Amino acid sequence: MSRTPLDTVEHAAATPDVELPWAELGLKKDEYERVVEILGRRPTGAELAMYSVMWSEHCSYKSSKVHLRQFGEKAPESDAMLVGIGENAGVVDVGQGYAVTFKVESHNHPSYVEPYQGAATGVGGIVRDIIAMGARPVAVVDPLRFGAADHPDTKRVLPGVVAGIGGYGNCLGLPNIGGEVVFDACYQGNPLVNAGAIGVMRHEDIHLAKASGAGNKVILYGARTGGDGIGGASILASETFDDAKPSKRPAVQVGDPFQEKLLIECTLEAFAEKLVVGIQDLGAAGLSCATSELASNGSGGMRVTLDDVPLRDSTLSPEEILMSESQERMCAVVEPEKVDRFLEICEKWDVIATVIGEVTDGDRLEIYWHGGKIVDVDPRTVAHEGPVYERPYARPSWQDELQADDANKLPRPETSEELKDQVLKLVGSPNQASKSWITSQYDHFVQGNTVLAQPEDSGMIRIDEETGLGVAIATDGNGRYAKLDPYHGAQLALAEAYRNVATTGAKPLAVSDCLNFGSPEDPAVMWQFAEAVRGLADACRQLGTPVTGGNVSLYNQTGEAAIHPTPVVAVLGVIDDVARRTPVAFQEEGQLLYLLGDTREEFGGSAWSQVVHDHLGGLPPKVDLERERLLAEILISASRDGMIDSAHDLSDGGLIQAVVESALLGGKGARLIVPDGLDAFTFLFSESAGRAVVAVPRSEEVRFNDMCGARGLPVTRIGVVDGDTVDVQGEFVLTLSELRETHEGTIPALLK
Amino acid sequence: MTARIGVVTFPGSLDDRDTQRAIRVAGAEPVALWHKDKDLKQVDAVVLCGGFSYGDYLRAGAIARFSPVMEPLLEQAKAGLPVLGICNGFQILTEAHLLPGTMLRNDHLHFICRDQKLRVENAETSWTTDYSAGQEIHIPLKNNDGQYVADAYTLDKLEAEGRVAFRYLDFNPNGSQRDIAGVTNAAGNVVGLMPHPEHAVEPLIGTGRTDGLPFFTSILKKLVNA
What we know:
The complex is a heterodimer of chains A (about 750) and B (about 230). Chain A is built from 26 helices and 28 strands.
């Protein structure tokens, strides 16, 4: 057996002409030259591995960074923000000494290659981000996008993704309380699997990812390191899929939720005993990321002995160990006198824990292997000073034509019979149909604090049993709107999530986002991205809800065809007493139905235009953020003061979709009257933003109307909760059983 | 005085804190037990809660059944200690042969989470006296391996002895034989079921019903009156 010499720092300095596989690892030529310039020599193989993963699009945000800065620059003043962008997840003050951390991330590419594991490890990754902040995870949400519902590959991807999310999240004991499922042919080959999580802690328990205090020990704990997921971030998440290349399956990680459950409990126990100085989870880029980020965020340097990393496969090279994305691992910095107790807790939970290094006085990250020094870098150059690109962007030439193709000019139903048929078609269409076949595969009840879960407008979790303090979360994003106008499309995503939180009675506080786009190397895509970020940052400032963190997923494209620009926005809200929450379902017959807000002829990007005409063109609904804020205030006040018994936001599908959902969930029908000044079609199908339907008990009618009048919110009485039909007077009657069959039958029929 | 009810945490247990809460809501005192404990801390009753002990690896409940805490539990259960197994706890009890039958994967091969209608068939066990026989209740169900099976002889025997404690109504969510949702031992002190009564004890939370609370008030009354 021949033995190649270990590529140490010394060896690298002495052999400047050795060719390294930088291109295969995803680095561009100028990026590699920059590494050589930083080090003043060629990198060792191990250093190259670290730079290549940390400078990948997924880890470095090199194409998006220049735009994302706006989230900080335009951030509104907010007393609620405790930890902002740049940490594992943002942290928000929700009162009574509680802090909440939440974040949404993408696991799009792995979920296409291997749906079950891709989706499962997406949940695992976001949950570790939450634990790393010091919080106990309390809920997850999953915004999903798939190709056409009837495409054969959707039948491969969707059930695998759903089983993966359920298989992992259910086993962790986290209630799944929200999210979305959207079908559109543009996601064929590029499904979007976003995963969000919420965690709760006391203010004093917030932990950060930094290694400080020379002599403190660096402990790697959790699963052993294996050969799975090597290059996941750099290869899978940062390149466009190309049919010609071999299968990328080995780059997808494999998850073990049982191990993660132990990791959660053991980490929380170590936090409770105040044993941890700094902590970082191992996600994308594995140990490369954890060591370089911990070291660069702290005050000193770090020395790591790679030989001490517990391995699943003893033949792994040091480069592979540094790049491995094996799941369920974390890295903690612990004072020397507390190491024994930390290891004891790990042993109690049967979690393998090993001291692999220590914090040093210097400012270098040094890694040793078999006695030789194989990494000697300034950790900041790895973690924070990667390349930054000012990618060219340009409004695509087809944008004008797309916007000129006005959906308001599409043929509309001419008879009541046609109107009725289109209503049935809409509520039974895959995007508008009930998703209970999917959500019933997720545990909503575990932890015993779930107040609301999907299909409610937002998920709601009680966080204090005594006071009833709770938090709500909603995620929204309409790729069709964003395609028509990325600036306003992103604002509509925020407006909808904000509205959804308020509809349940919670006050919106902060935002996390997952920005899913095509290739940044395409100027048209880059323009969509730049516009969406600008729109979202402007809207967050206006609504007073800062972005606390998030994730960018680029290269969601196959060949030339990019997905619709899909900014998914999560809004977190707080409610003083969950007993005041407002559900979607109609509660009592005889209650009055009111439409809040203005209804205009707005059909661009609408569900109606898609379902009835397979059309996408025109402009999305107008954005009025001041109106959204007013509507939210009214909804929150009405919930708190007991003026409304049910409420539902209006968004895709318009009023009729919302009324049908409230009716089916409550098992009570509605009689609707088309208001003066509106035609039945516009009344039922318009997607004007800033609207909601509420059910008001008769005893509260005057008080509620007075409040809306005094605050200047348009309010229109549109009917009454009644019977077992949805009766649009003068137009048509549909029985609840007919609607239920249509609404609930679609997804099982497609996927069974 | 009140009763002390132990809740065992195995690695991978999920509903341990929820079950402790349900015990508190009913007015009893929950006592946390750890799977490596070699004694039961003199508790008056024990709940084996839901979750995925040991990741459900090998077979649901098959590894937890060999935990140290199971030794005193088996001994005392046979001597009359009230034991309730919920979901994974039920699976552990069948693996430990305290209850007959076993659970297979759901017949439709999916995890299922729903508000499930049940009929209380036996209101005389230690855990069901606050129900009436024939009472219909709604309890959340959430599992991957909930299909109750046993040989025909065992099933007939269970039916004849009134040991089918709960039956699924309207919809059999997992293919369980004879719609069986839960069973009891002959003495009535050991009960196991797949649905989760601890998730139906507060009006605001979960499904908004409190149909699960009588499990915990039944045992409390029995213990306090004893």
